């Protein structure tokens, strides 16, 4: 029998529309909410992944499938989650008591996913913190090959270095009728050796099979990140709303400065042209459309519970429709804008190294910690540029971390209100728990743990969670009922376009993306590292465990 106050619809217990809770913390200013949403959505991936995905999938032509997926999938889901949080005024657990109790597991899945992400995402920020403080010297430490961490005979600045030809190894293998030999170059740039040997300590690990001990310097940087996050969150949106004034705006200032400086470098135009030149034949490939869907989905961030949590602190009559249009537009513009700053530098690096732009671009964390720092090392007053660059990434990452951990806090505190009066202690416990869980990513081989978690947590589990969220809201709760809720807030019902997207198009696109991720999924290793089968099995287990 359905509990009191519920009705059975097609055998599923549905809760009647409940009036939102009146006593609830609110944003001091509307701009703080917008900055928090923009700060969450505009993260490391906008600068790190989008430019590479764009040029690798048709350059300027990629914008067509990207915009199509924004309109028919990303934006409708973004709008839906903002409206849902604002009307119900509760977090990712309690909201399902009101929408569909049978699907409350979605809320728990969101919390598990957010926890896993906090374990590796904050470690990337910790690497940026390490670089930031390491840059506070007369010259950046990754500029030369004469440091204690360098393997001097295998270290070169550019391919023209004489050691490039002295550090090759000959590998031969017997074929059926002949013996074949290949030369494999063993040289690295000082930037690569600094990141891998000084920052990570990869020489003390054997891949993911033996990650070695904890790199305590990185662990200390990670602790600093969590301490900062704690003081940003301990008083709820009253404190985090003040932090976002800095963390959400700083990246744009720095990005503009880096773009201007990058455009003044030799070969920058070459990189920019390579970035925006459309290859129209690419848009006929399904892989390009899948990449566009995944990029817009993970960029806007529906399903993390963050939009739900942040909008739950709005006034009931706040125009969340306009908010969705503004913040999603800013997010997409930032992604494309960041590409100019990145590829101006890549064009410069390709020019001075005598390579093609494609050969210097990277899709992994190497873009942040190897390619761009290498370009910075060629500039005058390079420490200043390095500190600006890594400060930008620190603030980008912190905003996203604020959002992800606030989703956990709001979800749990709304479900168990007795904890609200102990928020400071609860947030402290959460920071300690996430820090301890993240220690595995601070080991000498921790980068392989980071890449494994990044490959399996969000790309698999999160897509399915958002699919279930869209289905439960549009089909079980009812798209017409949901539209009435929006009308009670805004004074008008969503148009037919939004209702069709919520009920049919967005769920169908999400289901297709989920199936394709299961069929074609491959882990994203660092450099050319190949994960052993047991690690891949663990990755799948982690991804499925979130469900």
UniProtKB/TrEMBL annotation:
Listed transmembrane segments: 33-51, 63-84, 105-133, 213-231, 243-260, 288-310, 330-350, 384-413, 425-450, 456-479, 500-519
Positions bound to Na(+): 39, 41-42, 46, 299, 331, 396, 399
Any one Gene Ontology cellular component term annotated for this protein: plasma membrane
One record GO biological process: amino acid transport
S-S pairs: 145-155
Entry keyword Transmembrane helix: yes
InterPro entries registered for this protein in UniProt: Na/ntran_symport (IPR000175), SNS_sf (IPR037272)
Annotated keywords: Disulfide bond, Membrane, Metal-binding, Sodium, Symport, Transmembrane, Transmembrane helix, Transport
Localization per record: Membrane
Keyword rRNA processing carried by entry: no
Topological category with respect to the lipid bilayer: Multi-pass membrane protein
GO MF terms, alphabetically ordered: metal ion binding; serotonin binding; serotonin:sodium:chloride symporter activity
Record family assignment: Belongs to the sodium:neurotransmitter symporter (SNF) (TC 2.A.22) family.
Protein name per UniProt: Transporter
Species this chain originates from: Magallana gigas
Lineage of the organism: Eukaryota, Metazoa, Spiralia, Lophotrochozoa, Mollusca
């Amino acid at each position: 029998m359905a509990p009191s106050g519920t009705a059975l619809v097609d055998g599923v217990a549905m809760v009647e529309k409940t009036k939102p809770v009146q006593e609830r913390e609110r944003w001091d200013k509307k701009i703080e909410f917008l900055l928090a949403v923009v700060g969450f959505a505009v993260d490391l991936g906008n600068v790190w992944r989008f430019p590479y995905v764009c040029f690798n999938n048709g350059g300027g032509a990629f914008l067509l499938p990207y915009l199509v997926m924004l309109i028919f999938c990303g934006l409708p889901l973004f709008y839906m989650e903002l409206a849902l949080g604002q009307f119900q005024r509760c977090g990712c657990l309690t909201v399902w008591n009101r929408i569909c109790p049978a699907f409350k597991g979605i809320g728990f899945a969101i919390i598990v996913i957010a926890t896993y992400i906090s374990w590796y995402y904050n470690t990337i920020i910790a690497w940026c913190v390490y670089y930031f403080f390491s840059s506070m010297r007369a010259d950046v430490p990754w500029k030369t090959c004469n440091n204690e961490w360098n393997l001097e005979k295998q270290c070169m600045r550019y391919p023209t270095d004489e050691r490039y030809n002295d550090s090759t190894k000959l590998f031969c293998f017997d074929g059926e009728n002949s013996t074949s030999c290949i030369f494999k170059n063993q040289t690295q740039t000082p930037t690569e050796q600094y990141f891998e040997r000084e920052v990570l300590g990869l020489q003390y690990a054997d891949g993911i099979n033996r990650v070695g001990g904890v790199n305590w310097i990185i662990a200390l940087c990670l602790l600093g990140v969590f301490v900062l996050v704690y003081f940003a969150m301990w008083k709820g949106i009253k404190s985090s709303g003040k932090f976002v004034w800095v963390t959400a705006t700083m990246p744009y200032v720095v990005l503009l400065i880096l773009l201007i400086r990058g455009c003044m470098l030799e070969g920058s135009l070459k990189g920019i042209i390579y970035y925006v030149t459309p290859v129209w034949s690419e848009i006929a490939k399904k892989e390009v459309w899948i990449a566009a869907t995944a990029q817009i989905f993970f960029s806007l961030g529906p399903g993390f519970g963050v939009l739900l949590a942040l909008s739950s602190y709005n006034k009931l009559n706040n125009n969340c429709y306009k908010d969705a249009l503004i913040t999603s537009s800013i997010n997409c513009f930032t992604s494309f804008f960041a590409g100019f700053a990145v590829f101006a530098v890549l064009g410069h690096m390709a020019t001075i190294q005598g390579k093609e732009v494609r050969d210097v671009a990277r899709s992994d964390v190497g873009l942040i910690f190897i390619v761009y720092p290498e370009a910075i090392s060629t500039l005058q007053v390079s420490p200043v540029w390095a500190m600006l660059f890594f400060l930008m990434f620190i603030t980008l990452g912190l905003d996203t971390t604020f959002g992800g951990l606030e989703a956990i806090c709001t979800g749990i505190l709304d479900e168990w209100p007795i904890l609200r009066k102990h928020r400071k202690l609860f947030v402290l416990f959460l920071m300690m728990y996430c820090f301890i869980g993240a220690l595995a990513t601070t080991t000498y081989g921790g980068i392989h743990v980071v890449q494994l978690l990044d490959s399996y947590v969000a790309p698999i589990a999160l897509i399915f969670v958002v699919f279930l969220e869209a289905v439960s809201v549009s089909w079980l709760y009812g798209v017409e009922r949901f539209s009435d809720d929006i009308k009670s807030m805004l004074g008008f019902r969503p148009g037919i376009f939004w209702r069709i997207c919520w009920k049919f198009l967005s769920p169908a696109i999400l289901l297709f993306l989920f199936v394709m991720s299961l069929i074609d999924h491959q882990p994203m290793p660092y450099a050319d590292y190949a994960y052993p089968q047991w690690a891949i099995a663990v990755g799948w287990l982690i991804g499925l465990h979130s469900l």
